[in-house]
Amino acid sequence: MKGEEEFIAVVAKDKESQFEALRVALGAVLEDHKVDLYILNHKLDFDYMKKICEGCDEEFKDNLEFLTEMGGSLYSNVKENEEYGFKILSLEEITEKLKEYSVIIPY
User: Fold this and answer.
1) DSSP label at 83?
2) What is the pTM of this model?
3) Strand pairing report for 73-76 and 87-88
4) pLDDT (0 to 100) of residue 49
5) What is the spatial distance between Cα 36 and Cα 75, in angstroms, rounded to a whole number?
6) Gap between the Cα atoms of 27 and 102, Å rounded
7) Interacting residues of 104 by C-beta distance below 8 A, sequence separation 6+
8) Domain limits, the chain
9) Strand ranges in 17-94 using DSSP code E only, listed in sequence order
């Protein structure tokens, strides 16, 4: 809701949703909400993003950086995502952390 800051979690459960989930997270951050992105059960797939559009893989990396610069956090349960700035948590830890949010947007 415009005018009220929300604490939002955007959760991507598969490679097909990772690009759109980040776009939604960025949109919410630009509306002055506190937003965190979760990538669950898969390593970021940049080859898949290249199939979406030319340069989408680089755009995705830039947007991850922008989200963190705007105060968002990155979380995943997949160790390989750590190289992209994600904090690695177990599914149990993620389940507990999701209770902190006022809005959860699943993809």
Assistant:
1) G
2) 0.93
3) parallel
4) 86
5) 8
6) 17
7) 8, 9, 11, 98
8) 7-96
9) 34-39, 73-76, 87-88
